[in-house]
Amino acid sequence: MSLFFRRLAKAAPFTFSNAFKGSQSSTKTSSGVIAAAISGGISLYYFTSFPNLAHLDSINEETQKKIVLNPKEWLEFKLHETANVSHNTKLFRFSFDSDAELGLDIASCILTRAPTGKNDEGKTKYVIRPYTPISDPEAKGYFDLMIKMYPEGKMSQHFAKLKPGDVVEVKGPIEKLRYTPNMKKHIGMIAGGTGVTPMLQVVEAILKNSDDKTQVSLVYANVSPDDILLKQKLDILATRHPNFKVFYTVDNPSKEWIGGLGYVSKDVVTKGLPGPGDDTLIMVCGPPGMMQHISGDKAKDYSQGELTGILKELGYTEEMVYKF
Q1: Angle at 134 between CA 278 and CA 204, to 5 degrees
Q2: Would you state the pLDDT for residue 64?
Q3: Where is the signal peptide (predicted)?
Q4: Is 156 annotated as a binding residue?
Q5: Region(s) of the chain under CATH 2.40.30.10
Q6: The domain 49-175 belongs to what CATH superfamily?
């Protein structure tokens, strides 16, 4: 694994001038300075040329963009490189044709699948899980997934065993929320762990559009400061864009921690997020326990389900809340 990619995963961006210049560009570093750039979903340099790995001659006639995703067909994407993000989270970069885009909508995810053996009829069984890429949807030739490794997680353990050159089957995009610029005056977000990935997708779409005046407030909850993913990236976005604010809270703080403490409370929501109203949308994504506490989980058929939890108690309605 390259030294650069390991530095990338530690999310320490200091320089912004040389983001992804194309499939032939290379990494440049200077004594002790980690060169990185915010480009779409992760701070990286595009440091090597990627071979043509996924082939789908699909042209979006409206935009004349070549896209590789197919919502009706499983396609193989080859793993290019991995890196550790935290003690239990890894970054995976997959490659495809360098003149094509993945084809994600805002906000959408992809489905991944992996074989888990054979059934009684001798047919292959699969485990299928959705993930939200953290790379720029308009990036060409690659996409990045940030995945937490659960000891009993069938899919995450499958990813943990992958080596560069291995392939993963992908289908999509799977549309979640159809975001349009200025659809709401203020969007509040509550995320836990890797639930920050769909939030980041929406945040970056808003911030890179100078005509989008939406105010965005993110409350990001984790177990400890070490579990906060992409913190420096989020902090830089908040520093550079006055319409984006982020607040962190953890269950187990370190001695140096100066953020919030404990679960997301009514007080945190009231002080940090927009109040109930027609021009407000609250997005929620996190582990099941957090979802139950905040909004209630989605229904068994994956529809939004009934709104419960502290958001309902604070006066929000189902029309004001979206559960990823």
Answers
A1: 45
A2: 77
A3: none
A4: yes
A5: 49-175
A6: Translation factors (2.40.30.10)
